[in-house]
Amino acid sequence: MEAHSSEVFVIGLTVFFLACIIGYYVVWSVTPALHSPLMGVTNAISSVIIVGAILAAGPFGHDTSKIFGIIGVVLASINIFGGFIVTYRMLSMFKKKPKKDKKD
Amino acid sequence: MSANMVAVLYLISALMFIFALRGLSHPESSRLGNIFGIVGMIIAIITTLMFKSVLSYVEIGAAIIIGGAIGTFIALRIEMTALPQLVAAFHSLVGIAAVFVAAAAFYDPASFGIGKVGSIGTSSLIEMSIGTFIGAITFSGSVLAFGKLQGTVSGKPIVFKFQHTINALILALIIALIIIFVINQSPSIFWTIVIVSILLGFLVVIPIGGADMPVVVSMLNSYSGWAACGIGFTLSNNLLIITGALVGASGAILSYIMSKGMNRSIISVVLGGFGGEQVANSAGDNSDKIVKQGNAEDAAYIMKNADSVIIVPGYGMAVAQAQHALREMGDMLKKEGINVRYAIHPVAGRMPGHMNVLLAEANVPYEEVLELDEINHDFPMTEVSFVIGANDVTNPAAKTDETSPIYGMPILDVEKSQTVLFVKRSMATGYSGVDNELFYRDNTTMLFGDAKKMCENIVKSLA
């Protein structure tokens, strides 16, 4: 058990550091003009924590853990919908404008 | 569904999230990126719903619909000027959700395959308490940041004696609590960790002033990622670890960019207290100097006769909601054949990229909006700089006055242009509390008044 869990931890740690490095390069490539949408989208995806909340809310019954899970699902859902929608709103403002200067 | 299948689907979801961030490298690819993010999230949720242990679809479905409806409602209604506080509020939700998930794992470890109540593995307990700790700090820190941005709490830094000592002691207390928790697995210790961490979150954000908010918001963004990571380790879930690391790295890089934009270390921002005491220092010396004042007609006349105008927006433009009137002014100048561009300082506004979003909202083409390094060398060749709602980011004292609190901060060199038009409500100092010598220069004309009204009046005069 102990040996197994430490193995799992090391795998997690490997994934963690590799993901940090990917994050580092990907985020530096984000254009500064889009830093606000970047916060919106990272906010939405960090709510992937909903996965844990669903697992807690999953079983039948009404124990403490389930209630926490349900609350977690509600909170994370606010973020997922809110985050993606607000990012969508921001990004649709950055659309290339049709040449309306020429109309006059 | 087999464990391998789940792992593959989670991997696809994680890749989608990476593409979502990658898409933001250009405005044209960014909307596709956002769709990748949504698809990734849908895959993650559906995969989890397929777990054998997940049975109560009704409750979960209802929870998603309720949360989704609230989120959608808020996101559709929010004004773009209120984005920073919205983002802060959302961060607080991620933080508190992390606490709830950790609590659920603690009360029912069997659902997550990490042992039984009272005999959870040591490493799971450590990961769980770290996730809880970061989540709780993110929660309370974001709530306070929200209050400061919204104006419900004073934006002034609150500094008191032994502040850092107290914070350090609380941190030590939390570490001690975590050790006790790992040993005795007591629920009361778990909740004590939550409460003390919440307290620490408040204390960490309290001393940080309004103009430092871009750093704080980015930092909390980062924390919310690390909280998700902590939960990922607790549940041995790679998707959570990867996503948390991406978000954590993103927030950390943004914090770094923001503090560099102010020439301050992240540490000094975190320790806080900026802009509180220096107010009195230099404000007095300039009281007898002469300020050249102008009105909208003068401004319209000056700009009409120029070849090139650079507009420098700041937080004041957001407060006055002047972006639409400003764009109208820019359009009229362009019609006259004048080269109009916008210069954005990295820390203009209250969150990274704040000004860019507001200008985009007002339909300013993003090609005309340039960053500090892209446009700074153009000021000497520019006839008119139109500064609207910005102050400290144009202050030449940052280059010349070693005693100034903003010394060393990169600034937009507006003073090198032939004429500076400075829209300002009054002669008050900026957030750093430093007087701006630019106001007293011969080539500066001050336009006192509300930013939006001023732009509207200039538009009238141009017509």
Which oligomerization state do the chains in this entry correspond to? heterodimer
Please trace the helix and strand order of chain A, writing H or E for each element. HHHH
Uncertain stretches of chain A: 100-104
> Mind summarizing the main beta sheet of chain B?
6 strands, parallel
Describe the structure.
The complex is a heterodimer of chains A (about 100) and B (about 475). Chain A has about 100 residues and is mainly α. Helices cover about 75% and strands about 0% of the residues of chain A. In chain A, helix 2 packs antiparallel against helix 4 and helix 3 runs antiparallel to helix 4. The C terminus of chain A is likely disordered. Chain B is about 60% helix and about 10% strand. Chain B is elongated, with a radius of gyration of 25 Å. Chain B is built from 18 helices and eight strands. Chain B is of the alpha/beta class. At the A-B interface, helix 1, helix 2, helix 3 and helix 4 of A face helix 1, helix 2, helix 3, helix 4 and helix 8 of B.
